[in-house]
Amino acid sequence: MSLYYTASDHFVLLPAILLALFGCAVLLFDLTALGSPRQRLWLPGLALSGLGFTAVALLRQHMLVAAQGVEISAFRGAMAVDRFALAFNWIFLVAAVLVVLFSYRHLRREGGPDHAGEYLGLVLLAHCGMFFLATSLDLVTLFIGLELMAVCFYVLVGFARDRRSSEAAIKYLLLGAFSSAFLLYGFSLLYGLAGSTRLKDIADAVANQGPGDPVVLLAVVTSAAGALFKVAAVPFHAWAPDAYEGAPTPVTAYLAVGSTAASFAFLARLFVTPLADAREIWDPLLAVIAVATLTIGNLAAVTQSNVKRLLAYSSIGHAGYVLLGLVAGNNTGLNGVAVYLLTYAPMTAGAFLIVAAMRRTARPAAAPLEAVTAAPVAASPRGRSGATVMEAQPELSSPRLEERASADDAVAATAEPAEDVDDFNGLMHRRPGYAIWMLIFLMSLAGIPPTAGFLGKYYIFLSLIEAGRYVLAVIATLYVAVALYYYFRIVRAMFAGEPDPPVGVAENWGTKVALTAAGVLTVGIGLYPEPFLRLVQIAGMR
Amino acid sequence: MPPLPQTVPLSWYLLLSAILFGLGVAGFLFRKNIITVFMSIELMLNAVNLSFIAFSYQFRQVDGHIFAFFVMVVAAAEAAVGLGIILTVFKNRATLQIDEISTLKN
What is the CATH number of the domain that holds B51? Predict the structure, then answer.
């Protein structure tokens, strides 16, 4: 035991150090010439290289843990890299890379000035907070990680600074701070029980007290409330639809993927180990909450007209499935939680990415003249799409092409996000590539076999059956049918709807790379799951 | 170890902490002005600090004190971000009444 900063401390902490360093570097470089609008490639590049170094650090940890088969403990037991931490850190990394890629030049279109440095810095610092949530074994570090992530997200949700975005941010902030106060109250009681902030000591103290103790009960309920809030479980879900709808869409994706996964890591760390002996208190509680979450999430999604809100409710439903994995509590269930969250990352990010790229267009007849004439100027700096080429050769264009060209120009000029289900009408005719990717993401979200989403659901159902919770398994299966209905409302709109007014797509290389990566992961995990399953296997293999 | 100079028992501190926490919850639920709601959250956090420090004193450790310091730091960060967001909300709507901030709905 040493009071000094040891080599293994450094080895464990290195990803967080890199993330914090690059996060601050991106913030600072924004102030220099590199942050000027002409040099926009620098900042995403710097952020991506930071994530790349983090990936290398994680890979080294992964290789050591895999080779030795034991966890690497650091800071006298306050943090540890084990398979659990690594699995979740890979999920966070996937989420952060996708979000940085598709936030590239996105914020300007969301309205307001683009503070790319601040934005990317906050994305990296939030990732740093997630790292602590997955790696900590101590109440203090868990709390700091949670708040580092949450405070970054409060700012990110309000980043557009318009009416909707600021409303979403204030709701998320007030409810988030309220829930962390509850969490802290639970933590203070746990500390009072154990006389230590280490999860290991708390586990012993809870085992000694016995689950019937009223203080244990109060501590479990209050800390559970705080943790369940972050995963948007019913009845703590009220913030999610508002925050998802009001936030800039890339932030929504990050919130849905990164924040949810990190909060589940937190929940699993808190419940599976230290509160394991209080299982008879929280097991029925968690089962009821999981079923309520499935019900509210899936049923409320059916009636939504805004796609971001629909996906918000559906992500509440997905949280219900993951909670069922924790309820099952066996090795399959724990692995199922990680598999579910890994598969959830690319498909959800992909779906939000397409929503982020969609742009409403003015009706060709009603399009203001200056919008069309100003279009080449506005369109030229933003990626060379087919429209610009057609603009250069007007004599070749047929009437239909002309309509498409003018529509795309209006896209660049108005830049109004298209977020309603009706906006997806006829996407297949205008942008078949985007429609087919969206179909794949939605199939995966619904859990249809050749895609990644099936795998997560398979593990959750399997764990419930292994644990003998047949009723829960049946309920969970029923809600798959409900989910199919609302996901396929979007599919029907894309393939059968009449485009009026036609929808446009604002794209650039970042969107394309992120979309391809998300799509390939979604299909790849579904078709060839072996390596991915091994990557996130957290239980039952030592 | 010499006995702790203690005139007030631990349970009293915990009771006070619970009462303060309850007042904070009540303020959060029933007040309509965002600033007041925000203050209620700070009250809840301070109630937690009190119980951390009371436990810490009882155990003769510094762990609880350190936790209380971290809670203060986080509360300050949250307050800074929170007031910034409140300012944006006010600029957008010229009101800080919670009931009037409801554009986002089903």
Answer: 1.10.287.3510
What is the chain B residue with the closest CA to A246?
Answer: B104
| % of chain A beyond a pLDDT of 70 | 85
Q: To probe the interface with A, which of B37, B66, B89 has the most A CB atoms within 10 Å?
A: B89
Q: How far is A469 from chain B (nearest CA, A)?
A: 34
Of A163, A166, A197, the CB nearest to B63: A197
Q: Output the pTM of the full model.
A: 0.89
Q: How far lies A264's CA from each of A102, A154, A224, A396, B10, in Å?
A: 24, 19, 12, 56, 34
Does the residue B84 lie in any domain? yes
Mutate to test the interface with A, among B29, B36, B48, B83 (most CBs of A within 10 A): B48
Question: If we measure between CA atoms, which residue out of B49, B60, B69 comes closest to residue A185?
Answer: B49
Each residue's pLDDT tens digit, A261-303: 999 999 988 887 777 777 887 888 899 999 999 999 999 999 9
Helices (H), B1-106: 10-30, 34-59, 63-93
Does the pLDDT of residue A439 top 60, yes or no?
yes
Q: Is B27 on the interface with A (CB under 8 A)?
A: no
What confidence tens digit (pLDDT) does each residue in A67-77 have? 887 888 888 88
Domain-embedded: residue B53: yes
Phi, psi of A529 (to 5 degrees): -75, -20
Contact B106/A187, CB-based, under 8 Å? no
Number of structural domains chain B divides into: 1
